[in-house]
Design a protein that fits this description.
- This protein is of the alpha+beta class and about 425 residues long.
- It folds into two domains: about 10-195, Beta-Lactamase (2-Layer Sandwich); about 290-434, 2-Layer Sandwich (Heat Shock Protein 90).
- Helices cover about 50% and strands about 20% of the residues.
- It has eleven helices and 14 strands.
- The strands form three sheets. It has a seven-stranded antiparallel sheet with strand order 1-5-6-7-2-3-4. A five-stranded mixed sheet has the order 8-10-11-13-12, covered by helices on one side. The chain has a two-stranded antiparallel ribbon with strand order 9-14.
- Helix 6 (about 170-250) runs antiparallel to helix 7 and helix 9 (about 290-305) packs parallel to helix 10.
- The longest helix has about 80 residues, at about 170-250.
- Bound molecules: adenosine-5'-diphosphate (ADP) and magnesium ion.
């Protein structure tokens, strides 16, 4: 900042970089600029929150510009207007009242042309807009620098003093460089913001898809149970009754009776199949008795026919979670048990459910051949990997974590844990029997 008061310099556009004369002063000036620049750059580096960048950037600049006031105006794309986003030492009335079209007033021109401006006294500047606000704020010396990213101007940074002739061209030069730095940081923060938004939308969509899929499975399961399954057991009973009647009435038509018996056993078989499908879609026990019972039942039905011995253990006091949470956890069990059935060649498997006041966790282990977890990095074209991937997603949606650990020749463990919050908890102390 200028220490002396030079009299009559005309307000106008500063040419950054030509503010000082004499090589000693110049070197010192450049050094000062570099220090200032690196100070701001260090302060905002690593920040990806736009408001934090602007706030911290401005505070650092004003710290360097001893006693100055100022603010950062950003260009609102849809309206093409500049608004103050952060300010220091300016009244709210000023900052809120000051909005400029591109090309309007001093800052509007800076934003339009992308060139910095130094005014010795803005209160006598014919081009300034909102002169009433400027005078009531008693602003005099004024610098406005563009905040640029690539070729577009994102906004301006204004620094002002209550004294005229307060700033040098060297100050403009320094602020101009800082403005470039801030521009890049703002652009990056906006990209980050957009990315975060996109990711958030995707997650929401994926979660809604899972919820819709779950609801659809539940609906089909119910329909199959209420219609198909009931009819099949009706037919099976009917056939059984016919067989009995024929036997009692001494009907000797062996072919007829054999036919009836065949039909009856086929019906029982189809009924069993349908029950299996229903249970895979959405087991009724999940709703009535909860996760542990459903896991126990599912594991037995799936693994016992393969001669894999399976135990289900509950630690802590069992509690119920909302249906979507229980359904998601059940899918994890289903996926892991399916993998044990299909890939493990295990003799034994175990499911452990641990209920703690703050956390629920789940472990599904087998003593099978194991696999190299590091090789499953993506969902393959064949669908291989989807089971593990969707498990991670489902648990992630509930704010939990999950993992797979496996040792070749020793076996595999799939684990998941979710925090118990008001969202996940809805009723305690429901116990289930085997
Ligand atoms: N318990 C397990 N024992 C041995 N290998 C397993 C086990 N669980 C998963 N795997 C391996 O990880 C792969 C990916 O599993 P997953 O994502 O469920 O896909 P998929 O079962 O459709 O192949 C499996 O193909 C298998 O090679
Ligand atoms: Mg699988």
């Amino acid at each position: 900042m200028k220490e002396d008061k030079r009299g009559n310099r005309a307000a106008g556009q500063a040419d950054p970089g030509t503010g000082r004369s004499g090589s000693g002063v110049e070197v010192e000036g450049h050094y000062h600029d570099l220090v200032a620049l690196s100070r701001v750059s260090a302060a905002i580096s690593g920040l990806d929150d736009l408001d934090a960048i602007l706030r911290i950037g401005l505070d650092n600049v004003l710290g360097i510009m001893n006693g100055a006031v100022g603010g950062i105006m950003l260009l609102d794309e849809p309206s093409q207007m500049l608004f103050y986003r952060v300010y220091r030492g300016l009244s709210a009335r000023y900052a809120e009242g000051m909005h400029l079209k591109l090309g309007e007033g001093v800052a509007g021109k800076v934003a339009q042309d992308g060139r910095s401006v130094l005014l010795e006294d803005i209160s006598s500047e014919p081009d300034a807009a909102y002169m009433d606000l400027i005078s009531s704020e008693d602003l005099r010396a004024f610098i406005s620098v563009p905040l640029r990213a690539k070729n577009s101007v994102l906004g301006v940074m204004n620094v002002a003093s209550h004294m005229p002739h307060r700033f040098t061209k060297g100050d403009v030069h320094m602020l101009h460089s800082i403005g470039d730095q801030l521009g890049i940081a703002i652009e990056q923060a906006r990209l980050h913001e957009r990315l975060r938004g996109a990711r958030e939308r995707l997650r929401k969509l994926a979660r809604q898809n899972l919820a819709a899929e779950e609801a659809e499975r539940r609906r089909i399961a119910r329909e199959l149970h209420d219609e198909t399954s009931q009819s099949l057991s009706g037919i099976a009973l009917q056939l059984e009754a016919l067989i009995e009647i024929s036997a009692r009435s001494g009907d000797q038509d062996a072919q007829f009776i054999a036919g009836l018996k065949k039909a009856q056993s086929l019906t029982v078989q189809v009924h069993r199949e349908v029950s299996r499908v229903i249970s895979n879609l959405h087991p009724a026990v999940l709703d009535t008795l909860g996760l542990a019972a459903a896991a126990r039942q599912h594991a037995k039905t799936r693994l016992q026919p393969l001669d894999i011995e399976v135990t289900t253990e509950v630690q802590g006091t069992e509690m119920r979670f909302p249906p979507d949470v229980e359904a998601a956890l059940f899918r994890v069990v289903q996926g892991a048990i399916g993998n044990i059935a299909e890939h493990s060649m295990a003799k034994k498997a175990s499911i452990v459910l641990v209920y703690q006041p703050e956390e629920f966790s789940l472990r599904i282990s087998d003593d099978g051949q194991g696999f190299d977890v590091s090789r499953i990095t993506d969902v393959e074209e064949s669908g291989r990997g989807r089971g593990l991937f969707s498990m991670r997603e489902r648990i992630g949606f509930m704010g939990g974590t999950s993992g797979v650990e496996s040792t070749i020749g020793e076996g595999t463990t799939v684990w998941a844990r979710i925090p118990i919050t008001q969202d996940t908890e809805y009723g305690k102390n429901k116990s289930t029997g085997d």
